[in-house]
Amino acid sequence: MIKIVKLLCYLLFLTTEIHCKRFIVKRKTTTAIPKNATESWTGNWFPHPPLPNDSWKGKWFPYAPYTNIQTLDVTHKKQLSASEICDDGKQYIGLDYDPNDVRKSFEHLCLANRSLFEPNMNREALRKEYFIPPAYVAHSKCLNETISYDTPLPTYGAFRPIPPKYGSYIFLPAQRWLTSLSQGAVVMLYHPCANNGQVKVLQNTLRSCLYRHIITPSLALSPKRPIALVAWGKSLEMSVVDDKLVVDFIKQSAKQGPNFSSKQQNNTKIYEAGLLQEAHLITDENDIEVCGYKEGM
Ligand SMILES: *[C@@H]1O[C@H](CO)[C@@H](O)[C@H](O)[C@H]1NC(C)=O
Ligand SMILES: *[C@@H]1O[C@H](CO)[C@@H](O)[C@H](O)[C@H]1NC(C)=O
Ligand SMILES: *[C@@H]1O[C@H](CO)[C@@H](O)[C@H](O)[C@H]1NC(C)=O
Ligand SMILES: *[C@@H]1O[C@H](CO)[C@@H](O)[C@H](O)[C@H]1NC(C)=O
Ligand SMILES: *[C@@H]1O[C@H](CO)[C@@H](O)[C@H](O)[C@H]1NC(C)=O
């Protein structure tokens, strides 16, 4: 574990070993750090402590002294009372994935041997449709409850109430992109070690097919088929992108979730932590025509 943290330290801050040694500290489980109380700060400064009256621009570890740690610390012991918050797409999101926590960076960094993920033309794509019992009711859960899935690559199940903005993410947890699936989006997942060229090919096709899409790395994928498309109850895992299969999958699966509606995403409550690039409209916000440009090809 220490090794991984150290490696992340090198990767993230490209610094020297001396600094990274200092960087290794035990996880604190303090509940809150009072505002304006630098003296009570028990974490570490990185790369070095600021001078007393310095306007220091470095990093703190694990959290900045002025941060209200309760909004970030997923191990908070105090149970949220039901009246406190359900989900606003911003607070308590660390329950699924904390974008400010460098220790979670392994979710989107390639820490394995890349050559195991090389594309192989002879490896067939795997298209799956899952049986969802007719009586199944899709439901959302507030951030006072954890959501876990019994398969590494979930295509249906519980999700968070607030959807993520459509587009590409540094990392988006499954609990959020499942919300998008339930609303009829197509999600592209790729292992962080997947071949860059293949990732770009699939990304370009998806982006030009429909507005309702999400693109994020995911460790759920295997080295044999490290790129995938997912829709509600369906998945397509690939080693090499097959454009025809991809377009067929998108056309047949888009706008199919149980909570699909033609309503536009509302910007008042939306999840956008880690958003790299917002999706562009292709036809209209309802994606009236999916992969239209592929007609007749
Ligand atoms: C630094 O801060 C202390 C009090 O916090 C103050 O007395 C002192 O004058 C400051 N020094 C400088 C160089 O600003
Ligand atoms: C979480 O909060 C929601 C909404 O306030 C409530 O309906 C639900 O029962 C709570 N769940 C738990 C486990 O407390
Ligand atoms: C990565 O895997 C390949 C093939 O399995 C192997 O030849 C190579 O030595 C490995 N590289 C590292 C750095 O482990
Ligand atoms: C489905 O969408 C409707 C309206 O957009 C919303 O009120 C409802 O809570 C959603 N259901 C779930 C399970 O999120
Ligand atoms: C979304 O926002 C618009 C205003 O921008 C508002 O008129 C509409 O009622 C909102 N829809 C929902 C479902 O909250």
Molecular structure report:
Helix content is 18%, strand content 12%. About 13% of the residues have low confidence. Helix 4 runs parallel beside helix 5. A seven-stranded mixed beta sheet has the order 3-8-7-5-6-4-9. The protein has 297 residues and is of the alpha+beta class. It folds into two domains: 67 residues, no CATH class; 202 residues, no CATH class. The protein is built from five helices and nine strands; from the N terminus they run ααββββαβαβββαβ. 31% of the residues are buried. Strand 7 and strand 8 form a beta hairpin. Bound molecules: 2-acetamido-2-deoxy-beta-D-glucopyranose (5 copies).
List low-pLDDT spans.
13-39, 67-78
Number of domains: 2
Q: Give the spatial strand order of the biggest sheet.
A: 3-8-7-5-6-4-9
Molecular shape: globular
User: What's the oligomerization state?
Assistant: single chain
Brief digest:
This protein is α+β, with helices and mostly antiparallel strands and 297 residues long. Helix content is 18%, strand content 12%.
